[in-house]
Amino acid sequence: MAVPKRKTSKARRDKRRSSVWKAKAPTLVECPNCHGFMAPHKVCANCGYYNGEEIIKKDED
């Protein structure tokens, strides 16, 4: 049976538990058309525009 040869130090243990594994907030950019927030390189969910062109038709209410 495998048994650790030496005790894992506190520094090594804490490096493993560090913030490297924590989730990050999603990146958001401002839409140049409607000035809402959108994911970069994606169609805007608010207005349906991407790169100055209307990709998805949205109803104007």
List the helices and strands and how they pair.
Elements: H1 10-16, E1 29-30, E2 37-38, E3 49-50, E4 53-54
Antiparallel strand pairs: 1-2, 3-4
Features of the shown structure:
11% helix; two-stranded antiparallel ribbon; rod-shaped; alpha+beta
Strand order of the largest sheet: 1-2
Low-confidence stretches: none
Number of strands: 4
The Cα radius of gyration reads: 23 Å
The ordered H/E elements are HEEEE
Per DSSP, the total helix count is 1
Proportion of β residues?
A: 5-15%
Which percent range fits the helix content?
A: 10-25%
Mean pLDDT: 88
Largest sheet: 2 strands, antiparallel
End-to-end separation in angstroms reads 69 Å
Overall geometry? rod-shaped
Structural class determined from secondary elements:
alpha+beta
Plain-language structure description:
- With 61 residues, the chain is of the alpha+beta class.
- It contains one helix and four strands; from the N terminus they run H-E-E-E-E.
- A hairpin with a 6-residue loop joins strand 1 and strand 2.
- The mean pLDDT is 88.
- The strands form two sheets. Strands 1-2 form a two-stranded antiparallel ribbon. Strands 3-4 form a two-stranded antiparallel sheet.
- Helix content is 11%, strand content 13%.
- It is rod-shaped.
- The longest helix is centred in the N-terminal third of the chain and has 7 residues, at 10-16.
